[in-house]
């Protein structure tokens, strides 16, 4: 039987990140030469081993916890030293901090013993410079020989990367067999109740990296939030700390910041992920959106290239240092890969939404030629067979077989479990396309550019075609199909994709209500969030990557659409599921987790290879906050709608420091659901639909009363 190369599990590992550097180790703090453990810089593993020993024995792990946004503290015991008796008297606290160019560690050895303590503390190292795709496929690189240089220093170098480890006052052993496993060591002598702090650091020089760390701190707002449901406060705090660590830039344009997709597999520019995360972060300011839009606009496609998937006007899928190859999956992606059907549409929609949140006109206007190019892609390249739908097919045989957000090879399945054959027409992509056409038309009109009528007509025709081709009979009544296959047959499984149609304008009011009802069924909503596929479908598996698992960003997008459309009960159920998952995962939501029933274990099941932290999962916390307070601005239109989800079910919720048009805004929703809004610029008017209590404006506030 041929050997199976399995992707390593990482659900039980502990990570720190300050992009483009991240580190993964076990719960004791050890970084072992196995699986995906190691220190990574961009797409390379720059340290494959860092094992702490005291007198050649491993300390015993007790606990670990956060040490700031980029750090972790591990508490271990050295019970063979110190006083005899049941109480441990010697411990080592290992504090690991990630930085943009490496990691540092402090080893704090402390004693409460009544007798002196003598020991030797050491750290065994290793480096293989394995590319991330080799690690992801279950492989590893050969250990490289280290070169000892100055006292306390050891170094590895290959392919332009230089990795240097320095131990302050440490002795280095890198001779003989230790050349591939060099050791830093320190003799330690502690007086009774004494302590000592030892330090070592890893530094990376990587001039060929395609991503870099931003030169300044985040410029998004960090709101002060008060909530009856404290889970939301804890989730937001942890998520914003994680997002701080995921920020990246293009080395040639360090002023433009975007979010890397996730640790460890995707810590680079991903069109779809970076766009969705920036869109979710708009309530905290438009700067991240502007940087993301500009970074992707610079790499917008200009020619037709089947190998890379590039086409004129198309937005990039992902950017790597070199070709990304997974032989077991017959996957071979070029460094700049355009195999995504939705990123171009999401780019248009982010530009529009950022404009609505107050992105200044002088930042929008330089992007309008890229908007027009993206719309031309929609009109000229997105519909290869001319049937009026946006579709995809990989013609190379080694690209992504599926090119929507559910991009695993088995994600597009009929109700009976059969795989759909490409070209594939995804349901949610038609919603994105409708919205992009309408949003693009609005931008063209606002900035007095031609062509708006063409795109509104394009949207109208797409809606008619969608209504005729996608609706099928399902176990809970009419439903939009997941997709159309090669023969234009509806792929009739019931999936979370249909929730992305809410708010795009593609659905009528009655159709939206039916979709909301479908999303509320136990088959989709019975877990800790929204299942990617219903339990009634033959392809369902709770630990399938895209056919039954739950993704935090997917749940957040859909509950946001439900809330905006007025389906509060359905939105609240998904919000509670997401908050329950957050609590179970120590408020660091992973990329995805199992779609098991809530009652099965009382907590979600880990998906063992999920990224954590992950950008759009962390940004989901901001979506929860936004729909909770219900703030929906239209700065160009001079209005702000307020439709809070908070109130009797979710409890009271208040946020100071949300941003609209660069101005800090406060929203306070009481337990009855009555909103109070303060701080709006004087040229914006508050509006509220009839079903929502009218907002109150505090005395002395510069914001106007509701109209």
UniProtKB/TrEMBL annotation:
GO BP, sorted A to Z: carbohydrate metabolic process
SUPFAM superfamilies linked: Six-hairpin glycosidases
Species assigned in the record: Micromonospora viridifaciens
Occurrences of domain Putative glycogen debranching enzyme N-terminal (ranges): 17-201
Protein name as annotated: Glycogen debranching enzyme (Alpha-1,6-glucosidase)
Stretch list, region Disordered: 677-707
Alphabetical list of InterPro entries matching this protein: 6-hairpin_glycosidase_sf, 6hp_glycosidase-like_sf, GDE_N_bis, MGH1-like_GH
Annotated ranges, domain Mannosylglycerate hydrolase MGH1-like glycoside hydrolase: 341-583
Pfam families: GDE_N_bis (PF14742), MGH1-like_GH (PF22422)
């Amino acid at each position: 039987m041929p050997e199976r190369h399995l992707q390593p599990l990482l659900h039980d590992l502990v990570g720190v990140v300050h992009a483009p550097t991240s580190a993964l180790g076990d719960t004791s703090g050890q970084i072992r030469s196995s699986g995906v453990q190691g220190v990574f810089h961009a797409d390379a593993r720059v340290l494959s081993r860092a094992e702490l020993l005291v007198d050649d024995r491993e300390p015993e792990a007790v606990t670990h916890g956060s040490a700031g946004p980029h750090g972790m503290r591990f508490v271990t015991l050295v019970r063979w030293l110190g006083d005899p008796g049941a109480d441990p008297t010697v411990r080592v606290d290992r504090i690991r901090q990630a930085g943009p160019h490496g990691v540092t560690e402090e080893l704090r050895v402390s004693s409460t013993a009544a007798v002196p303590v003598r020991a030797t503390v050491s750290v065994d190292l290793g480096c293989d410079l394995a590319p991330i795709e080799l690690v992801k496929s279950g492989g590893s690189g050969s250990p490289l020989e280290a070169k000892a240089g100055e006292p306390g220093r050891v170094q590895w170098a290959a392919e332009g990367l230089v990795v240097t480890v320095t131990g302050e006052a440490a002795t280095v052993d890198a001779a003989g067999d230790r050349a591939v496993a060099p050791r830093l060591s320190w003799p330690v002598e502690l007086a009774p109740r004494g302590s000592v702090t030892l330090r070592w650091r890893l530094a990376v020089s990587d001039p060929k990296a395609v991503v870099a760390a931003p030169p300044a701190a985040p410029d998004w707002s960090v709101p002060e939030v008060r909530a009856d449901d404290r889970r939301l406060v804890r989730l937001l705090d942890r998520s914003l700390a994680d997002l701080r660590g995921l920020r990246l830039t293009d080395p040639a344009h360090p002023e433009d910041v975007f979010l890397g997709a996730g640790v460890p597999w995707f810590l680079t520019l991903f069109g779809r992920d970076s766009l969705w995360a920036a869109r979710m972060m708009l309530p905290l300011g438009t700067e991240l959106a502007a940087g993301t839009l500009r970074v992707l606009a610079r790499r917008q496609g200009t020619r037709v290239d089947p190998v890379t998937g590039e086409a004129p006007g198309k937005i990039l899928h992902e950017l790597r240092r070199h070709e990304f190859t997974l032989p077991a999956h017959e996957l071979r992606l070029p460094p700049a890969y355009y195999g995504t059907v939705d990123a171009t549409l999401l780019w248009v929609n982010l530009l529009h939404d950022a404009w609505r949140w107050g992105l200044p006109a002088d930042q929008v206007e330089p992007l309008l030629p890229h908007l027009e190019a993206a719309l031309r892609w929609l009109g000229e390249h997105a519909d290869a067979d001319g049937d009026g739908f946006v579709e995809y097919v990989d013609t190379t045989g080694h690209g992504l077989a599926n090119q929507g957000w559910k991009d695993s090879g088995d994600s597009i399945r009929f109700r009976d479990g059969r795989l759909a054959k490409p070209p594939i027409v995804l349901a949610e992509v038609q919603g994105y396309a409708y919205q992009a056409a309408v949003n693009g038309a609005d931008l063209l009109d606002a900035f007095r550019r031609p062509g708006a009528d063409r795109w509104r007509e394009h949207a109208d025709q797409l809606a008619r075609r969608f209504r005729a081709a996608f609706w099928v009979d399902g176990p809970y009544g009419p439903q939009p199909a997941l997709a159309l296959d090669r023969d234009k047959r509806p792929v009739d499984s019931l999936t979370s994709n249909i929730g992305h149609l809410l708010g795009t304008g593609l659905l009528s009011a009655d159709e939206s209500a039916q979709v909301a009802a479908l999303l509320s069924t136990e088959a989709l909503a019975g877990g800790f969030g929204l299942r990617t596929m219903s339990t009634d479908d033959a392809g369902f598996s709770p630990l399938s990557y895209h056919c039954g698992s739950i993704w935090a960003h997917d749940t957040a997008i859909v509950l946001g659409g439900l809330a905006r459309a007025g389906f509060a009960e359905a939105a609240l159920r998904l919000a509670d599921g997401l908050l329950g998952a957050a609590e179970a995962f120590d408020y660091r939501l992973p990329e995805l987790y199992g779609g098991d029933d809530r009652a099965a274990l009382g907590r979600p099941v880990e998906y063992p290879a999920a990224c954590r932290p992950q950008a759009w999962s962390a940004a989901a916390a901001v979506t929860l906050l936004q729909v909770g307070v219900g703030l929906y601005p239209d700065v160009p239109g001079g209005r702000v709608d307020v439709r809070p989800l908070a109130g009797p079910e979710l409890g009271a919720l208040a946020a100071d420091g949300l941003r609209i048009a660069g101005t800090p805004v406060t929203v306070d929703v009481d337990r009855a659901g009555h909103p109070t809004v303060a701080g709006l610029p004087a040229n914006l008017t508050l509006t509220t639909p009839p079903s929502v209590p009218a907002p109150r404006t505090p005395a002395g506030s510069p914001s106007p009363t509701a109209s």
